[in-house]
């Protein structure tokens, strides 16, 4: 009967160790976690995890940390550790953000260096030619605004 009880405890849904024992792995987890918030709640969430889940957490945590760093996630948007553990977020798929290559500059003189080049660029981005009475600076500003809007909304070259 005693063996059956021990066996049931080892194979229980949580498989957690004795109450109050969180093990040295929690300190490893806590040391790596970037947002040091609600440590007691995190310890309680850790204590509820099965040993296999604890190993999984420690195994995948570096990829989550790398994702948050690559995505430049602000600290306030990184979940509290207890929330992350209770939500089994270590099972989430982590897709690293791709870096966008910088657009290559066109060969030849820049479009703002001559009236002809500015007029050509103005037509290319849809603002047309300079308006009557519009200064070169005003026309260049309209072109730059059109380029910025095109880039922002994905209408790039």
From TrEMBL:
It comes from the Bacteria. This is Uncharacterized protein. It comes from Alcaligenes xylosoxydans xylosoxydans.
